[in-house]
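Lab notebook: predicted structure, single chain.

Context: the supervisor wants predicted structures on file for every construct in the current expression panel, including those that have not yet been purified. This is the next one on the list. No modifications to the sequence; it matches the entry in the shared construct table.
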Amino acid sequence: MSSVSNVVVKGSSPQSPGGSERSIAARLTEGGTPASIAAASLDGSGRSAGSSVSSAMASVGGGALATAPPPAEPAAPNRAKAILSANAMLKTAWRNIGIPLTAIAIFLVVWSRLSAGIETSLGKIPGPMAVVAQTHALWIDHLAEREKRVAFYERQKQRNADRLKADPTTEITERKYTGKPTYIDQIFTSLKTVFAGFLLATLFAVPVGILCGLSKTVNRALNPFIQLFKPVSPLAWLPIVTLLVSALYKSDNPMFEKSFVNSAITVTLCSLWPTVINTALGVGSIDRDLMNVARVLNLGVFTRLFKLVLPASLPLIFTGLRLSLGVGWMVLIASEMLAQNPGLGKFIWDEFQNGSSNSLARIMVAVFTIGFVGFLLDRVMYGLQSLFTFGAQR
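Prediction complete. Output recorded below exactly as produced.
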């Protein structure tokens, strides 16, 4: 390369453009930088040698310097991003799953250790394994009772068929199975009772809350009664409700048993207040400009109610409904104990009165069932709230 560059330099003239380019090419091949060569080289016409440098670079590199692709990005940053993403996923899983499971495990260990050292009149406090065993026993009792029920109706059906065969004119009577309700039956009875009371509370509380939110006069008139009756315990309501139902609910063939009606009305009286308060707050917090626009447009009462008031206040209404359902489920247990309405409350009271060695474990089963069902009811209401309302939390 040095001999070729010497030939090019000697054969070039400073005044000829071609010679300048060949001289620059020679300097490039000898290791010079384009910037230093451009600063030091001028052609014969006095113009900068930048164009000559560019031509020389193209001639030396065969155009490779101008058209060379950018270097490939190293794989290390991609690998680092993948590691950071995996770490973030692990942290999220630990927060959402790992921490709750760890807390539950600690609770079970502490429970099993402490329960072994506490002695009561019914025996020791049952540990987790005893509660699990009684849960299984209650399920087996439910299956056995179901088999008895099926056998009873099969025998009745066969007996009626034999009677009709002997005398086609005989009168057939269908008898109901009168076996004791199982634990699963009492769970569904409690659910039916709480939903009946919650439905009555909703039908009363939502319209009253809307009236309180729309009219300050109605709000001032009803607020003393709301504040007066809101803290009353279900144990205080139940005797009054029982007397009223006994006096007013009389029928030879009633649709519902009186114990069911007593419990449902007690749930209604205790659970309607959160819905009334939150509905009034939601309606009262609607932007006044929207209400003024509705007046300017001369919207009807029902149009204003269903197109403006209810959609704007639904989030707080559902908050009140969730609170009311939780209060109703909590109140139900006490009302079932006193009203002796078949349900979880009566089950707990019967086991307490029974006083067997398994009673405490079965009461613990009922306690966990009440908590789990309450959690599911709250999740159901939250799902309905997400379907019918719009917001950042949806």
